[in-house]
Design brief:
- A hairpin with a 5-residue loop joins strand 10 and strand 11.
- The protein has four domains: about 220 residues, Galactose-binding domain-like (Jelly Rolls), CATH 2.60.120.260; about 120 residues, Immunoglobulin-like; about 160 residues; about 60 residues, no CATH class.
- Helices cover about 5% and strands about 40% of the residues.
- The radius of gyration is 28 Å and the shape is elongated.
- By secondary structure, it is an all-beta fold.
- The strands form ten sheets. Strands 3, 4, 5, 9, 12 and 14 form a six-stranded antiparallel β-sheet that branches. It has a five-stranded antiparallel β-sheet with strand order 1-2-23-32-34, with no helix packed on it.
């Protein structure tokens, strides 16, 4: 077993869970995406010195608009003074356009404010303050209340984040000419996620009509880290507006497009190439929202490249759809040929999707949200998840007895025979300190009662280990576990997962967005849990963040572990085996032991030995070389 050391420190968090029978999802403590960005950009400064003087000529002018579609991680510093919010597309549910500003209890570095996690402490959370905006005059003509200046925005409580309650609130403030801030709107927290709701705030006090006008969103929340989310989108301030006109002359791409693969987010390209038709999604899917107050015929287009060369261009009038006013709809474009690509993994396909009205070009100030860029990656692993953890997953230690065993199994359909050399697991820091809790990673060929199997067939079990909270390039990432033997798996179903002898929540990464592009309430049908009774698929929506890696062994998740020492001894093969095992060299003495340490077979002066009479199971092969050095390898024996 080779893992990243030392262990990270876990912060304790309040118990807020969403449970399904035996298992549960939990909130997270920090924001790994922000931490990765800061580590990769050590010279980053959000607001360069003297960038804005805030004088009469240096303030912003109307209209002010930001839907965060062109921002990443932090808001646009030409529009906002601070960077406490997290700009993302993972935490909201069906926002007005791609990306929102998410408010939580984490500072701009992605760590808890005051380094404190305390559900009983309610104080200020994130804030978002606009740059000064000139509301005194336009071209020398003073603004007046009759100019009907209105600030509007959309907000959503929770989304895919953890739950707010009545102690939490989102508030809006405006700055008067005397420099005093006045609260003009607030909303109390809700325990369940809701659709985005629009708010329109007309300016009806002349004290706000000055050259240094600003507005500010703030939150008051329990200090619970990456939870208690508010999402704000589509912030618009302009004149000549009406409070009963809650629409915009805009349509927008609403979120990231779905994977080009039907079942997986990613898989090895050589495996995909075995039978592409069963893996390819039947179309290119994404969502578009219409903010107009009239229906629109929206025409999508697709531009696809691979290694700089054009791979496909799709779209046109045949793909347009009528999009009802102030609604959203799933769009689809014809799939394109991604077979026959060559090169070393990862294979990266670059995708650019755009929308417009019929053949017209959108010239309004909102048009930046009409285009999105994404990638489709093929690597040496199978993944259902998109790489971003919104929660953690494990057994519910609050409802299950603590003295029982637990197992999690995660099923994959292998497209071709290949060598499983590693399992990547995303370990969260959340809720309970489990950094010293012990578990074993497992690989199964079948599970009793699943897909007609009569029994569990265990192919591999690791030594006892504890969670390792890995960071690569400043970002929380997967931790690799390297198998200590070549485990050759045939095409077909297999399972990875873990065994724990006590009931606790291991807090493995949980991707809430699994299937969201097509079905927001989808759960992974290949995930099973077992504590008391039989294997069960009663799990929450979303998917687990564990990935099996295949092929030739390579360094995974760079900088998270010490490089592997070169293999000094021949590996036994085949493994699993049914009749004969080859040792890779001649040995004076070879012994086979079961998991209880009982010797079940001995051979001398041999380079192979016959196991056809041995019961199926996991065994240890002990060899002694010329230096009398003991070499121990794990062997899986299957029924022949």
């Amino acid at each position: 077993m080779r893992l990243c050391w030392p262990l990270g420190l876990l912060l304790l968090v309040f118990t807020v869970t969403e449970s399904y029978a035996q298992v549960v999802t939990t909130p997270m403590v920090n924001n790994a995406t922000i931490q990765r960005f800061l580590a990769a950009n050590p010279g980053y400064v959000f607001q360069p010195q003297d960038k804005h003087k805030f004088g009469n000529r240096d303030t912003l002018s109307l209209p002010f608009f930001d839907d965060f579609a062109q921002s990443k991680i932090y808001p646009d510093s030409t529009k906002w003074l601070n960077n406490q919010v997290f700009v993302n597309s993972q935490f909201p549910i069906l926002p007005p356009s791609l990306n929102v500003a998410t408010f939580d209890a984490l500072d701009p570095s992605g760590y808890p404010y005051r380094n404190t996690i305390n559900k009983d402490l309610s104080t200020a959370g994130d804030s978002l303050t606009s740059q000064p905006i000139n509301l005194r005059d336009k071209g020398g003509v003073p603004y007046s209340l009759s100019d009907s200046i209105i600030l509007s925005f959309f907000y959503q409580p929770n989304g895919y984040g953890y739950h707010l309650n009545g102690e939490d609130s989102l508030r809006l403030w405006m700055k008067a000419a005397n420099g005093i801030w006045f609260q003009v709107w607030s909303k109390g927290g809700a325990t369940t996620s809701q659709d985005f709701e629009q708010v329109l705030i007309p300016i009806r006090d002349a004290n706000f009509l000055h050259a240094g006008f600003q507005f500010m969103f703030t939150t008051f929340t329990r200090q619970v880290g990456n939870a208690n989310h508010w999402h704000v989108d589509y912030v618009f301030l302009d004149e000549k507006r009406k409070v009963n006109e809650a629409y915009y002359d805009d349509y927008a791409i609403q979120g990231q497009p779905a994977s080009l693969l039907k079942t997986f987010w990613s898989m090895p390209y050589a495996h995909f190439s075995v039978n592409p038709s069963i893996h390819e999604e039947d179309a290119v899917y994404f969502r578009v929202s219409n903010r107009f107050n009239v229906d629109k015929n929206i025409q999508p287009s697709n531009n696809v490249t691979f290694e700089g060369d054009l791979l496909a261009q799709t779209g046109g009038s045949l793909n347009q759809k009528n999009l009802v006013s102030e609604s959203s709809l799933e769009f689809n474009l014809p799939k394109y040929d991604i077979k026959g690509l060559s090169g070393d993994e990862p294979i990266v396909i670059n995708r650019t999707i755009s929308v417009r009205e019929d053949s017209k070009i959108n010239l309004n100030p909102f048009r930046v949200n009409d285009t999105i860029r994404a990638t489709q990656i093929f690597h040496d692993y199978y993944a259902y998840d998109d790489g971003t953890a919104e929660r953690g997953f494990g057994f519910d230690q609050n409802t299950n007895p603590s003295n029982i065993e637990g197992q999690i199994a995660y099923g994959f359909d292998l497209a071709k025979e290949d060598t499983l050399y590693a399992i990547g697991t995303f370990f969260n820091q959340a809720v309970y300190d489990v950094s010293r809790r012990r578990f074993k990673l497992r690989v199964w060929q079948s599970l009793a009662g699943v897909d007609g199997a009569s029994q569990d067939i265990l192919l591999h079990e690791s030594d006892e280990m504890t969670p390792v909270y890995s960071i690569a390039n400043g970002r929380r990432t997967f931790t690799p576990y390297y198998l200590d033997t070549n485990l050759v798996l045939p095409a077909g179903k297999f399972y990875i997962g873990w065994f724990q002898s006590e009931m606790f929540n291991l807090n493995v990464g949980w991707d809430m967005n699994f299937g969201n592009a097509r079905d927001p309430n989808k759960k992974n049908p290949n995930l099973y849990a077992k504590s008391i009774g039989a294997w069960s698929n009663d799990v929450p929506q979303g998917t687990l963040m564990m990935r099996p890696h295949f092929g030739s062994e390579r360094e995974l998740y760079a900088s998270v572990y010490s490089p592997k020492a070169k293999e000094e001894h021949p590996k036994i093969y085949p493994n699993p085996a049914t009749e004969v095992v080859y040792l890779g060299a001649q040995y004076d003495e070879v012994s086979l032991y079961n998991l209880s340490g009982v010797e079940v077979l001995r051979a001398t002066d041999t380079a192979q030995f016959d196991i056809s009479g041995i019961l199926p199971g996991i065994y240890y092969v002990k060899r002694a070389n010329d230096d009398n050095e003991q070499i121990i390898s794990k062997l899986v024996i299957l029924a022949n």
